[in-house]
Amino acid sequence: MRIVLFVTSGLATAALLLPAGAGAAIPKQATAVGKGGAAATVDLKGTRAAIRTLRRGGNAVDAAVAAAGVLGVVEPFSCGIGGGGFMVIRTAKGRVTTIDAREESPAAMRPESFMENGAALVFNEARYSGLSAGIPGTVAGWQRALRRYGTWSLADVLKPGIRAARRGFKVDGTFVSQIEPNVDWFNDIPSTAAIYLDADGTPRDEGSTLRNPDLARTYRRLGRGGARWFYRGSVATAMANAAQHPPKAPDANHAWRPGLMTTGDLRAYRAIKRRPTHIRYRGLDVFGMGPPSSGGSTVGEALNILEGYQDLAADRVRALHLMLEASRFTFADRNAYLADPDFFGVPLAGLLSDSFAAERRALIDELHAAASPVPPGDPYDNQADPSRRAAASATISHPRQSTTHLVVTDRKGNVVSYTFTIESTGGNAIVVPGYGFLLNNELTDFNYESTTHPNRADANKRPRSSMSPTIVTRAGRPFVAVGSPGGSTIPGTVLQVLLERLDLGSSLPDAIARPRATQRNGATTTAEPAFISSPEGQALMTRGHAYSQMAEIGAVTGIEFLPRRRLLAAAEPVRRGAGSAATVQP
Questions:
Q1: End-to-end CA distance of the chain
Q2: Strand duo 415-421 + 84-90: pairing
Q3: The three-state (H, E, C) secondary structure of 148-175, written as one string
Q4: Which ranges of the chain have pLDDT less than 70?
């Protein structure tokens, strides 16, 4: 069918003749099969924005940013323009690249910035402050992706987000549950309370409509002025003021320490194009995000270890035991060696080498869980470097971390796997007055209790992340794109989904739905109740695995590329209120 497009004010608008399925409704469903493009996000509105962009002629990058703009409205405690993230892109020509839009510390930050009287601040005092706010990278990342790989303007892709902010959305139980732990801090900040709390100081009522006209205006101005306005205009001044002088109420019952962000820091921010991590796994190519994210190296190293074991599908208990043990040892390495590569010589080649995987695999007992913390290995001698062993660390993520992940592909074969965040659920709890978005608390991802760790707080530095957007190809063609939120549980979540799909015979939807467990070099394995009570979970206890319970781990979205150009999009069927998957032509 011939497709005729008109271009008006920079927007590839609806055609006289649209592709088959262009007018089809987009229902809320966790799994969708079809052609012409696909998307999966944690929210129906986000998925609709992506699919409608694809149906109107936009490509996968355009659709990913359109969905991300909407998620910044309806998932404001997980993501938004006050945060940052990592995007893995595979172009239709087969090139894989990544964009690092991670938040960055201010120029005035020092290793002692989160310390008082020689001791590190407790987490909540560090988080709920201006001090925890890093320079946001999301907007710079969107603009770089669109200019290099997209076809629409920033103004055009933000239109669905503007509509969502102006018209509002229905508050659901998940949204309320994300406000509840934050109420005692949200009510300290009038600009935050005005949006997310009712007049009586309680969370917005489930079923009510939440509108954010300030964010709608911010998106409009962002569309007109682009990243230059965001990092140099009035909003930049407002962000710096909100960080330096947290806009707390006179009767606020928390300290709200001042931050270090300046307008000069904002002007200096850049999103960075980086090479993806790459390993081969059972004939497949696995691409992920490199430092300062630990996702690509941690997932890649674990897969390299698992590749040394054969016939994993014959015994699920054995397979899950080996997965957890591989994760245990890779987290020891992640905790010791992953940091901003501009500040520390991350031994990435060594970490992802087959020889280093063999060294780590040799330490795994197939019948017994190791006692954590296990020490890190020495990857430097696997890349012909002299040993510069880093300080070991058993640090794991702090509580109530959030984030969101989306995947999109178009009819030409462009693929985007994108994870972005404001760190903890609700960020640092400061809505920038007049602009309608929350600032991040990303700088608490530094090992801020240390003045010597590679991931210590420093000036103009990007903290280590666990985000693991991943694209898998087979014979040079896309096969699976996947990722998840969940702080330091992300690498283990992505690893388990890949193991289920690639080794254990699960379909992608089943791999996403299965109960989860993740081992982060801790004394216990973090696991969902359904995993602990499962036959496999109980059998693992006889091998020495002990559990700490977490109600939900991750919120995965993924796309699989099927024969005959068919696409399978999949999201969580239950977790985080259930996600949303759709295709252009159902």
A1: 17
A2: antiparallel
A3: HHCCCCHHHHCHHHHHHHHHCEECCHHH
A4: 1-23, 384-401
**How far is CA 212 from each of CA 104, 403, 420, 436, rounded to the nearest angstrom?**
27, 20, 21, 7
Q: Would you list the DSSP string of 232-266?
A: HSHHHHHHHHHHHS----TT--S--------HHHH
What are the pLDDT digits (tens) for 404-423?
999 999 999 999 999 999 99
Of 403, 419, 421, 526, the active-site residue reads 403
Radius of gyration of the chain (CA): 22
- Residue 403 known to be catalytic: yes
Does the pTM of the predicted model rise above 0.85?
yes
- Which distant-in-sequence residues (6+ apart) come within 8 Å of 422 by Cβ? 77, 78, 79, 80, 82, 83, 402, 438, 439, 440, 441, 442
Q: What is the 3-state secondary structure (H, E, C) of 277-335?
A: EEEEECCEEEEECCCCECHHHHHHHHHHHHCCCCCHHHCHHHHHHHHHHHHHHHHHHHH
Tokens of 318: 């054995």
Q: Which residue is listed with tokens 């009819």?
A: 411
Per the CB < 8 A criterion, the answer to whether 277 and 218 are in contact is: no
CA 201 to the chain's CA centroid: 30
User: Chain centroid to CA 82: how far?
Assistant: 14
Partners of residue 408 on adjacent β-strands: 39, 416
Helices 60-74 & 213-232 angle (0-180, nearest 10): 120
Structure tokens at 204: 């917005």
